[in-house]
Amino acid sequence: MTFGDAEYNGKRKRTRREVFLAEMDQVVPWKDLLALIEPHYPKSGQPGRQPYRLETMLRIHFLQQWYALSDPSAEEALYDTVSMRRFAKIGGLDEVPDETTILNFRHLLERHELARKLFNRVNAHLSRKGQSLRGGTIVDATIIGAPSSTKNKDGERDPDMHQTKKGNQYFFGMKAHIGVDEDSGLVHHVACTAANVADITQAHKLLHGKEDTVGGDSGYTGLEKRDEMKGKRKLRYLIAEKRSKLKQIKNKRELKLA
Q: Which segments constitute the Transposase InsH N-terminal domain (predicted)?
């Protein structure tokens, strides 16, 4: 243990990040996930540069998902944030994986199509524990931006990425659509599309089928009328009103009071 570790352990109050990471340390079925990746991961003792511990790389990958960290940002966060470093099981004297190593691990998961398997394995584990799939689902979407100059290995723009406008800003990249358990906040479904795909068109893919309520922002207005939702069990829709409609309501109230 270093002096820094001793000083950190002496803290009295735990931050929200520390509480969350401590919970994830207990909740995530690490052994099952490691067994899934291990057959594809480089073995220690071979000639050349030795790989980092698999568990450390997997934990860093999860940190990236939870905190929306790019590869360079993940490396910096591990240097800057003690709680993240401890969660990744990186000791005070251990070397922090650089952004290229983090990138290579992500590519390994993609190459062997392990990301979806990891996601499904975690959700299955949580369902067995009764920690997921409860009363309702909240649907949402977020843009994953990329430089507009991003090209694939053939030197062409990636066909899966497109430009879209949000507010007064333009973005280029992809969009992640997620279905979240309203009680636990755990993500149970994910769908990825180009950034210009409307949120509402993917909503039906984000439901687990056992919810009684669906919530979302104004981008999902009219969801209950869409063909994809026909035949679904009877649901209660809690969709936020569009800003323009709220403004009209406010104006009507002001007119009545005038």
A: 15-107
